[in-house]
Amino acid sequence: MTIEWSPEAREFHLRNDRVSYIFRVLENGWLGHLYFGAPLAEGRSYAHLVPGEFYGFSNRLGEPVPLEYPSGGAGDYRIPAVAIELPDGSGVLDLRYKSHEAHPGKPEIPGLPSTYVEVGGEAETLEVVLADAVAEIEVRLLYTIYRDRPIVVRGARIVNSGKSPAIVRCAMSASLDLPDSDWELISLSGEWARECHVERLGLRPGRQSVSSTRGASGHQHNPFVVLARPATTEASGEAIGLGLAYSGNFVAEAEVEPFGTTRLRTGINPDGFSWVLESGAEFSTPEAILAHSAGGLDALSDAYHRLFRERLARGSWRDRARPIVINNWEATYFDFDEPKLLAIATAAKEMGIELFVLDDGWFGRRNDDSTSLGDWQVNLTKLPGGLDSLARSVEALGMRFGIWIEPEMVSRSSDLFAEHPDWTIGVPSRPRTEGRNQYVLDMSRPEVVDHLFGVLSAVLGGAPISYVKWDMNRTITEPFSPALPVWRQGEFLHRYILGVYQLYDRLTKAFPGILFESCASGGGRFDAGMLAFAPQAWASDDTDAIERLKIQWGTSLAYPLNSIAAHVSAVPNHQVGRVTPLATRAAVAFFGVFGYELDPTALSAGERAEITDQVAFYKQWRELFQRGRFLRLRSPFEGERDEAAWMTVADDGRSAIAAHYRILSRPNPGPQRLRLRGLDAAAFYRVSIWPSPAEAAGVAARPIVLGGDELMAAGLVLESSRESAGAGDFRARLYVLEAI
Ligand code: DGJ
Predict the structure, then answer these.
(1) Which of 381, 428, 457, 693 has its CA 20 to 30 A from that of 629?
(2) What whole-number distance in Å separates Cα of residue 292 and Cα of residue 675?
(3) Strands 250-256 and 137-146
(4) Is 329 in the pocket of ligand 1 (CB under 6 A)?
(5) Residue 395, Cα to own-chain centre: how many angstroms?
(6) Cα–Cα distance list, 680 to 412, 618, 633, 687 (Å)
(7) What's the rounded Cα separation, in Å, for the pair 587 and 627?
(8) Is 591 exposed, middle or buried (0-12, 13-18, 19+ CB in 10 A)?
(9) 316 Cα–ligand 1 center, Å
(10) Whole-angstrom Cα distance, residue 739 to residue 706?
(11) Alpha carbon distance 695, 716 (integer Å)
């Protein structure tokens, strides 16, 4: 890993064995981009990769000179990285190179989540200072390169060195100019209960973007996009990833201009955003995480998974095996009492489940979703002994105990709202819109954050609580804080998320032993910002195994398996009414942080025995399911959309589990094969099947020891016409591979 600076060529080259990022100071002092991709040799200049002399757009109007952090107003008409309204009312910025410094390690960003380093020599950071002499604005660009990751992390700090306030209208975390547009934009889009569906479309002239204006990253689009070459597959080809460690309004956007080059940018969504920068003040952007892969989408995902798992997630749970939970939400909804909960926990414990989660409805007068958010005192009618007694009873069973909270919200019918109506978000002269019968607390106010820290600390400190599911069930309307001056209202939504981060930071530090899981009606805030505090997230309220194939496939593009919470629920499924085999539900949920969301007391003895086996199987292979390298084999978004397959492989290649899912049964399908990846070609693997071979009639007859070369080149024989007949829909089969 090096950060090379050539004073003659005025060129920077950030490099490790997996990636190079190169840019230079142009003749006029602007920062020009040269290259991001597979590693190039050190000690050379690459200045010739872009037009020779460049003295500004006035000489070459419209020519697409690639820039590192472009501003508008001086002839570059593409989407800017930065836009500032200056004290004279103009918005023309002329940012020229002033100085630079390289440091070992990586700085934190005040108030914002970020990736980090833990040991010396792991990463280096370059800070390049650009300055506009007239406006007295400085922009400090930060670039971190890790020793052994194909990743460059970027961010910017904007400093007002002038005497009057300026208004930041747009401040991207990163902007990247690419020399062509032969790319497809992959985004993760959807809605409640169908999050992170993969969309892939070729770039065309103009702007293509995904974004949020809801105050949360949202179910609709994830703050993560990929540019992939049209020929790029999971296993091969070039791809560039653009992630953002941010949980609020974001944009991720590509623009193809008339010469066919592409500008890619991501950061806080400028729509509705502004930030007043007083004299001497500075503004930090969230960080953008850029990755390059020459080996397909698998390799790109692997780079993000490792970084997010090892150097974004933090705390005592970062590296620990995550417990198998049972959550009472779909089992009881709001209708429970202590005996009912303990009956669920007792049955769960008998099946080997490790942690009981008490979901919504344990506080205030909450018997449905119309009251009590904000009143974080236990409902003694439902739980006469309080949380402490329930938690101790659960612990006495040999399980751990967790609870659900929704700190950012308040019900109109609550003591908190009666006491502090002014703490809710809204424009005083207008009605506030309710969502799920609730309002949103103004997290931009320090007193609100302090209050929540106080009441939630009392809850978490008052009982043996090992896990917290932090939910957020509505997005923000009427964004306005009476506590902010008129001219600062454009800051509100960013300040809101800074308040959320601060509360997370304080609670996770005060309760370091608690495992936090984030949630926003499922995957409505599943992003890299949240993962810095809560190392796992509830991926979707949709627990149907077939729907989950798509959701988990898409989510895995960016996020590691040990961040994706996935539960087996009852049938008919509560979201889509589908009836799938219990084995299939487990076979999908295994590939994530596994758990159950059903009433085990309502199951037959046979079903309980099956679950006991599932739990034992997951425990046996937990490390592989939670931290193995995930390879996507057959997409539920492609072809006839009738099957899916994926696998997880240990880093040493000695063990792997592949899964194949057949959605609708096919008549007479003929012999089907599935080629695996990531194995040791020279090794022999014992292949066993889950569910047990007795159910997988016919397969057990095949050889059970197969070569890694054969499994990857020829493939695994999946099913025959004989097996398919009468097997039914929604089938799953797992293949456990152990090197011998
Ligand atoms: C939405 C979550 O996604 C569900 O899992 C559940 O916790 C409910 N909220 C509770 O209100």
Answers:
(1) 693
(2) 25
(3) unpaired
(4) yes
(5) 32
(6) 60, 23, 17, 14
(7) 17
(8) buried
(9) 25
(10) 9
(11) 18
Q: Is residue 55 scored above 60 in pLDDT?
A: yes
Query: Cα angle vertex 521, ends 520, 524, to 5°?
Result: 50
Q: Name the nearest CA neighbour of 128 among 149, 104, 99.
A: 99
Using a 10 angstrom Cβ sphere, with 0-12 exposed, 13-18 middle and 19 or more buried, the burial of residue 283 is: buried
* 375 among known catalytic residues: no
183's torsion region: left (phi>0), alpha (psi -120 to 50) or beta? beta
Ligand 1 in reach of 261 Cβ (< 6 A): no
pLDDT at 59: 60
pLDDT of residue 701 exceeding 60, the answer is no
Alpha-carbon gap, residue 592 to 520, rounded angstroms: 18
Distance (Å) of CA 406 to CA 27, 43, 615: 54, 54, 29
Pick from 245, 283, 250: nearest CA to 267? 250
User: CA-to-CA distance for 324 and 98, rounded, in angstroms?
Assistant: 54
Residue to mutate (ligand 1; options 469, 519, 548; most atoms within 8 A of CB): 519
Cα end-to-end span (Å), the chain: 37
- Closest protein CA for atom 3 of ligand 1: 521
Give me the residue label for tokens 């890299």: 528
14 forms bridges with which residues in the sheet? 3, 21
CB 325 within 8 A of CB 357: yes
302 is catalytic: no
- What is the structure's pLDDT at 702? 56
Question: What single-letter amino acid sits at 395?
Answer: E
Beta-strand relationship, 400-405 and 151-160: unpaired
Provide the whole-model pTM: 0.98
Segment 285-320, tens digit of pLDDT? 999 999 999 999 999 999 999 999 999 999 999 999
Closest CA to 466 of 382, 357, 593: 357
DSSP string, 415-457: HHHHH-GGGB-S-TTSPPPPBTTEEEB-TTSHHHHHHHHHHHH
Nearest CA to ligand 1 atom 5: 541
The span from the CA of 156 to the CA of 140, in Å, is 6
Q: What's the pLDDT tens digit per position in 403-420?
A: 999 999 999 999 999 999
Position 33: which residue type?
A: H
pLDDT in tens, 366-406: 999 999 999 999 999 999 999 999 999 999 999 999 999 99
Residue 560: what are its φ and ψ, rounded to 5°? -70, 160
Sheet of 731-739, strand order = 629-634, 643-649, 655-662, 731-739, 684-690, 705-707
pLDDT at 63: 75
Q: Which two tokens stand for residue 395?
A: 């612990």
Q: Which amino acid is at 74?
A: A
Which residue out of 132, 471, 527, 542 is catalytically annotated? Answer: 471
How much is the average pLDDT of 619-642? 96
50 band by pLDDT with thresholds 50, 70 and 90: confident
